[in-house]
Write a structure and sequence with these properties.
single chain, Rossmann fold, 2 domains, 5-stranded parallel beta sheet
Length: 335
């Protein structure tokens, strides 16, 4: 690693520390959630925030837009939402001379940080309108390809599927999310801090730390970070061990999983371990980063079989057992 690259990483690490502090002043007591979402953005990807209403997911996205200096957009997903409400549509306009022509009106997807609120309340047809935007950073309307431009990130919130009025996200769309972030209830001490910080005469305000151009430069720097051979092997071992049809699959995987993660999961781990190392002030990722990101990266890219569901097993348990056997490192209960 060159001295120039080391100094660039150190400068970016300091800037990211300021960004995390600014976000944490408003989104109190959820440091791991903030770390995962920032890691997804540094990796150039999208994040799916899963949790019950009222846990601050919307405020987190709004705060990130300010701190990262991005132009935000928001879509409130409802059962009657149509694809045109996301992408935009063409309207017929009449000019003063009487001539008529179609003009494209951009939808809310034309932004830099899109908040897809309660994404699983819309029908699969409407959810699929985001697929091309998330993967290719462009949309096609009336046969015309319209680029979204960098940076473009989707931070979607999702209510637990057990709630009434929700639809399961298609597997292809889930795979487009770099990480799935579970937002849990705060601890008692954290909730006390939230009460005191948010019910007074003033509230903490987010401070802009990055610009869009600086975020793009940071994403390029993340891809230049070196990754040791042991980390690469740990990623491959973990992902391939979670595929029931692979020779490397562990017995627990063959017994519990209907299908496992594809190559995009390995790519996601390769990027996010670098981003996590950077966020924690390190020059290169470690195997511990791979283990820490196993659940957020893999859990939405695999499915339990019927027998495993009947036995009451969970994907988190399966991933923890595989990670421990492959790397020798236990995943903490709160990870």
């Amino acid at each position: 690693m060159t001295e120039d690259l080391v100094s660039e990483i150190e400068r970016l690490g300091a800037k990211l520390g300021a960004a995390r502090a600014s976000v944490n002043r408003r989104f109190i007591g959820q440091e791991r959630v903030v770390e995962l979402v920032l890691a997804a953005m540094l990796s150039g990807g999208h994040a799916l925030l899963v949790g019950l209403p009222g846990l601050g997911k919307t405020m987190l996205v709004d705060t990130l837009a300010t701190v990262m200096g991005l132009n935000p957009g928001r879509i409130q997903f409802t059962p009657d939402l149509m694809p045109a409400d996301i992408l935009g549509s063409e309207v017929l306009e009449t000019a003063p001379d009487g001539s008529r022509a179609f003009r494209f009106l951009e939808g809310p997807v034309f932004c830099q940080l899109l908040m897809a609120d309660e994404i699983n309340r819309a029908s699969p047809r409407t959810q699929s309108a985001l697929l091309q935007a998330m993967q290719e950073r462009e949309v096609t309307v009336a046969g015309v390809h319209r680029p979204l431009g960098p940076p473009f990130h989707v931070l979607a919130t999702q209510n637990p599927i057990e709630q009434e009025g929700t639809y399961p996200l298609p597997e292809a769309q889930l795979d487009r999310f770099l990480v799935q972030v579970d937002v849990e209830y705060p601890t008692r001490d954290t909730e006390r801090e939230i009460l005191l910080a948010t019910t007074g005469a003033t509230e903490a305000e987010a401070i802009r730390v990055f610009s869009a151009e600086e975020l793009i430069a940071a994403q390029a720097l993340v891809r230049r970070m070196p990754v040791g051979e042991s980390v690469v092997e740990a990623i491959l071992d973990l992902v391939r061990a979670c595929r029931p049809g692979e020779p490397e699959a562990l017995p627990v995987v063959r017994e519990a999983l209907a299908w496992g993660p594809g190559p995009r999961a390995a790519q996601a781990l390769m990027l996010t371990v670098r981003a996590r190392a950077l966020l924690n002030g390190r020059l290169a990722p470690s195997v511990e980063d791979v283990v820490a990101l196993a659940r957020p990266v893999l859990s939405h890219r695999m499915a339990l079989g019927f027998a495993a569901r009947a036995r009451g097993e969970t994907l988190s348990q399966v991933i923890a057992r595989v990670a421990a056997e492959v790397t020798g490192i236990e995943i903490e209960a709160a990870a």
